[in-house]
Design brief:
The chain contains 12 helices and 14 strands. It is of the alpha/beta class. Bound molecules: pyridoxal-5'-phosphate.
Length: about 375
């Protein structure tokens, strides 16, 4: 039997080696290793690709969430609404500013933040709402944005898993007031190292985030803000420009694989398949199903040669980082997802035949539990 891998970050290098090596040589020859044409070029391309005006390259995805909050003056005493169920970076970004994350439970269909529970979580300290397009499935943004505009709140998308995901005809990055992206190697658009970006239509926000990422400076040795250092390397930007041209095709492959799984596993007993909100298009960063006896299924699939993973096994409010402050709270949907979730392999490194074969094994193994 063929050996499948869950994720293959080397796949994109092998498939685009000549172009990536040429991009490397261009940056190395340019003598510009911070900023410069490669970075400016990628920022313009990625903003346009998302359908937004500005992109600011940053050191990683976490910073792409922290800096827009800081730029808006959000800090101690303020609250930011976040999904209970997300990769922990969403919560950590809020905590880094000194503000308090206010978790809202997950929607059992999409596993994204439960839109119906957000309004009740707003207090007079709320400054921003940070939905996550988790697993590549976008949150429906229209009503949320109207709510934020009416209440004077920032709508900051955590788009780290959602490059190209669509709500109506808006891509992630153009759904809220601003969005943070990650280019961690395993993301749908990944660098060969760390990277991230802020995307927004707000010129003032983009300018301030850029300053915060560069020692609070617009002009060398003139420091108007107490900023830090969080920049996207031009080498990574050059690689990302090469890869961006293939992102639509890679996302389409993910969508085709997800369609195979959804179709072939539709009647497998006890499996709960991932749902996508009406009017949205997922880019399937992950394919996360649920099963009441997840551990048994996980073991059996590994033995049958299907690599699987857990996203995520421990609810954020129960993790060591947050248990002291949030451990007494209960988010039943998020907790149930953590206990039952199982991620199947998905990505452009897999063919549709691979997806058919994997789905066949998953169906058979699940039935034999
Ligand atoms: C990956 C990720 C981040 C953080 O990105 P890094 O580049 O690893 O810092 C933030 N939020 C979510 C939902 C992520 O998946």
């Amino acid at each position: 039997m063929r050996a499948y891998s869950f994720l293959d970050v080397g796949f994109t290098y092998r498939s685009l080696k000549a172009d990536l090596d040429a991009a490397y040589a261009r940056v190395m020859d340019s003598g510009m290793y911070i900023g410069g044409a490669a970075l400016d070029g990628f920022e313009a391309e990625f903003a346009a690709w998302c359908g937004a005006k500005y992109c600011v390259g940053l050191g990683n995805g976490l910073e792409a969430l922290v800096l827009p909050l800081r730029a808006r003056g959000i800090g101690p005493g303020d609250e930011v609404i976040v999904p209970a169920h997300t990769f922990i970076a969403t919560w950590l970004a809020v905590a880094q500013t000194g503000a308090t994350p206010v978790p809202v439970d997950a929607d059992p269909l999409t596993m994204n933040i439960d839109l119906g529970k957000i309004e009740a979580a707003i207090t007079d300290r709320t400054r921003a709402i940070m939905p996550v397009h988790l697993y590549g499935a976008p949150v429906q943004g229209e009503a949320l944005r109207a709510l934020c505009d009416a209440r004077g709140l920032m709508l900051l998308e955590d788009a780290a898993q959602a490059h190209g995901a669509q709500d109506g005809n808006r891509r992630a990055g153009a759904i809220g007031h601003a969005a943070g992206f990650s280019f961690y190697p395993g993301k749908n658009l990944g660098a060969f190292g760390d990277g991230g970006a802020l995307v927004t239509d707000d010129a003032e926000l983009a300018d301030k985030v850029r300053m915060l990422s560069n020692y609070g400076s617009r002009v060398k040795y003139q420091h108007d803000l107490a900023g830090g250092n969080s920049r996207l390397d031009p080498l990574q930007a050059a690689f990302l420009s090469v890869k961006l041209k293939h992102l639509e095709a890679w996302n389409a492959r993910r969508q085709d694989i997800a369609a195979v799984y959804l179709n072939r596993l539709a009647s497998t007993p006890d499996l709960r398949l991932p749902g996508v909100a009406p009017g949205t298009q997922s880019v399937w960063h992950l394919f996360v199903l649920r099963h009441p006896n997840r551990e048994a299924l996980r073991q059996a699939l590994i033995e049958a040669g299907v690599p699987v993973a857990l996203h995520y096994p421990i609810a954020n409010h129960k993790s060591g980082a947050f248990a002291a402050e949030f451990g007494h709270l209960s988010f039943p949907v998020a907790e149930a997802i953590c206990d039952t979730c199982l991620s199947l392999p998905i990505g452009p490194h897999l063919s549709l035949q691979d997806a058919e074969d994997i789905a066949g094994i998953v169906d058979q193994v699940t039935r034999s539990l």
